[in-house]
Design brief:
Elements (H helix, E strand, L loop, with lengths): L20 H22 L1 H8 L6 H4 L1 H24 L1 H12 L1 H8 L3 H30 L4 H30 L4 H19 L5 H9 L18 H11 L1 H30 L4 H29 L2 H20 L3 H29 L5 H30 L1 H22 L18
Helix pairs in contact: 1-7, 1-8, 1-9, 4-5, 4-7, 4-16, 5-7, 5-9, 6-7, 6-9, 7-8, 7-10, 7-16, 8-9, 8-13, 8-15, 11-12, 11-16, 12-13, 12-15, 12-16, 12-17, 13-15, 14-15, 14-17, 15-16, 16-17
Length: 435
């Protein structure tokens, strides 16, 4: 019998959340640290650009999100391909190594160009680390509880974004915009690299185990999606051709388009209304906090109720929240809107990943996740560019209205084009391995 690959667990492999509870929990912790690396910027960086570097044009100020989105989107694709080719753990470690200099560059940046460089590295790091933790969790749990697994993963990541955004707001209020808020990032990078190197185990063999026991859907869907797809075929199916995969990809793009808006322009909108940095930090934290906690429930609910209408309704709820933000002018109303935006995003985020896992064959699922995340995180770049151009031309509120309309339209596309991916019936999720 051949020896297991380096870093793999020598015990017989089993699929399931309970059977892999220790490794799954460790990966949840690692993804929380990944989220913390992103959260260190949510409150502070837009204000840093405006107050320390004198950026007055919205488009210029949003360049850090633009380069972050482009870098992360491209790296997501690479992460999926490399995870299939070389294994998950090496990709995870590479992501943490790239993360180490990010907070240091933000602390010492003498010009906005250094901040741009830091966000290129942050995008590469997030693409490698977050994509890999998603893929590894899908590997471990098998087909029956993907929604719950993705809910736990995204809850940990965005819960950490929220807590870090809140903490950095208070640190910035007390000690200034630099260096105190970014010292959290130094600690997160050190912990993430250490845990990933010492304790995380390779999970690629779990995907191979699931592929070996794959049972086709009884309704005949996905029969054309056999296991031997080229990289180009995976890209085309996920991006354009396969109705559920491509619907998920466009919804993911639009979801992160409005997240890019929230990240880059909301702090400036709130500051313009006279809110303090600490109160801006509360609002910046509230949205990802509800998003994070909500995913503990929405991912599991999508395992019971299905994916399609959870996604469509979540996009429409986000659109309503953006409309409230566009018309409101005080902390209380914005807090309600931020909570609604977080709830809508919680309905969408883990459910989209679970839908990709439902449709994609285990043999090319990591690549499909990478393509989906390429489009989804490309939304950061599209959102930064669109929101910046519209805000410069017509004002911040006009940018919010524009993104609200796009988000509502995305929900319509899901409602019209996507089919229910969480199939119930013979050979389905409820009765055995299913893709």
């Amino acid at each position: 019998m051949p020896a297991p690959p380096p870093g793999a667990d020598p015990r017989p492999l089993q699929l399931g959340l309970r059977q892999n509870a220790a490794q799954f929990t460790l990966l949840v912790v690692v993804n929380a640290l990944v989220g913390g690396m992103l959260g260190q910027e949510r409150t502070v960086l837009p204000l840093l650009g405006e107050r320390e570097f004198g950026l007055t044009a919205y488009t210029a100020g949003l360049t850090f999100i633009l380069v972050f989105g482009l870098a992360k989107a491209a790296t997501n694709y690479v992460a999926g391909t490399f995870s299939d080719r070389y294994g998950r753990k090496p990709v995870l470690l590479a992501g943490w190594i790239v993360a180490v200099p990010v907070p240091l560059l933000l602390i010492w940046a003498p010009s906005w160009g250094w901040v741009i460089l830091a966000n290129v590295l942050l995008g590469v790091s997030q693409g490698l680390t977050w994509s890999t933790t998603v893929i590894m969790k899908i590997d471990l749990v098998g087909p029956t509880r993907r929604g719950l697994a993705m809910g736990l993963n995204e809850a940990a990541g965005y819960g950490a974004v929220a807590l870090t955004a809140l903490a950095t707001g208070y640190l910035a209020e007390s000690y200034g915009l630099r260096p105190a808020p970014f010292l959290l990032g130094v600690a997160f990078a050190a912990l993430g690299l250490g845990l990933s190197g010492v304790a995380v185990k390779e999970t690629r063999e779990h995907a191979r185990l699931e592929a070996a026991s794959h049972v086709a859907r009884a309704d005949g869907r996905h029969d054309h999606l056999h296991e031997r797809l080229s990289d180009r075929e995976v890209f085309v199916q996920t991006s354009v051709r396969e109705p559920a995969l491509s619907s998920a990809s466009q919804a993911g793009l639009v979801n992160n388009l409005n997240d890019g808006l929230a990240w880059g322009l909301f702090p400036i909108l709130f500051a313009g209304a006279g809110l303090s940095v600490s109160r801006i930090g509360v609002l910046a934290a509230l949205y990802p906090a509800v998003w994070g906690v909500g995913q503990l429930f929405t991912g599991a609910l999508s395992d019971r109720w299905g994916r399609k209408w959870m996604i469509a309704a979540g996009m429409w709820l986000q659109a309503i929240a953006l409309v409230v933000i566009a018309v409101a002018d005080d902390f209380a109303a914005w807090a309600v809107a931020a909570a609604l935006l977080g709830a809508g995003t919680a309905m969408v985020y883990p459910t989209l990943l679970a839908a990709i896992g439902d449709v994609a064959h285990p043999a090319w699922r990591a690549r499909s996740v990478g393509v989906y995340r390429l489009w989804r995180d490309g939304g950061f770049a599209v959102g930064a560019l669109l929101a910046g151009v519209v805000a410069d031309a017509l004002g911040v509120r006009a940018a919010v209205w524009t993104v609200a309309a796009l988000t509502a339209a995305s929900g319509v596309i899901v409602a019209v084009r996507m089919y229910e991916t969480h199939h119930q019936g013979p050979g389905s999720v409820g009765e055995g391995p299913e893709v």
